[in-house]
């Protein structure tokens, strides 16, 4: 079966990205773009991002996760450290994050290094989660093969009984990653495929070098 998509066309005409409007630190520009995306009715989940890593099998793999916090230091998300994703990152901490807000015709690509978040910070976020999400972190052996949906449901019920009427602690295998960026590229769609691409690259003195890339 073949489906030819060569005639698909879209003209990008909403905005422009000029060097004169770019701050010295890319986190400031990320903050400005994220604020607009988060407030826009054209974007469902502004904090949904794709993270790509190199798996233990040598293949790259990408999946969508949720950004939970960003600071001057980097970008934070949470996962099961024993999952396929967690093991891949712990084995090779070079990752790529990307945001694509199609309604705004914008994309952000972040290359960086990931490291485990401090335990107290993972504890603090875990405590803020609903009990159902806490129990899910215990019940799901993420990425492992399961025999059926019933097996998952039974594991959830067993942990509901185990932690009944008590505080649900954070599993040691669950926590956050902080991705420290080494480059951040901002992409703004423009007409005739002449898109704006501005890349910031971290320098040895921790300043950022700004360059325009051809589309």
Short description:
The protein has helices spanning 26-39, 84-91, 119-128, 131-139, 149-162; strands spanning 48-54, 60-66, 69-70, 75-80, 94-101, 106-116, 174-188, 196-202, 208-213.
Defining traits:
215 residues, alpha+beta, 9-stranded antiparallel β-sheet, 5 helices, globular
Structure description:
This protein has about 220 residues and is α+β, with helices and mostly antiparallel strands. The protein is built from five helices and nine strands. The chain has helices at about 25-40, 85-90, 120-130, 130-140, 150-160, and strands spanning about 50-55, 60-65, 70, 75-80, 95-100, 105-115, 175-190, 195-200, 210-215. Strands 1, 2, 3, 4, 5, 6, 7, 8 and 9 form a nine-stranded antiparallel sheet that branches. Helix 4 (about 130-140) packs across helix 5 (about 150-160). It is globular and about 60 Å long. The mean pLDDT is about 95.
Task: Chart the SSEs and their pairings.
Blueprint: H1 26-39, E1 48-54, E2 60-66, E3 69-70, E4 75-80, H2 84-91, E5 94-101, E6 106-116, H3 119-128, H4 131-139, H5 149-162, E7 174-188, E8 196-202, E9 208-213
Helix pairs in contact: 4-5
Structural class: alpha+beta
Radius of gyration: 20 Å
Shape: globular
Number of strands: 9
Helix coverage percent of residues? 25-40%
Poorly predicted regions: none
| SS summary, helix count | 5
Q: For the report, how would you describe the main beta sheet?
A: 9 strands, antiparallel
What is the beta-strand fraction?
Answer: 25-35%
Order of helices and strands: HEEEEHEEHHHEEE
* Average pLDDT figure: 95
Report the end-to-end length measured between terminal Cα atoms: 32 Å
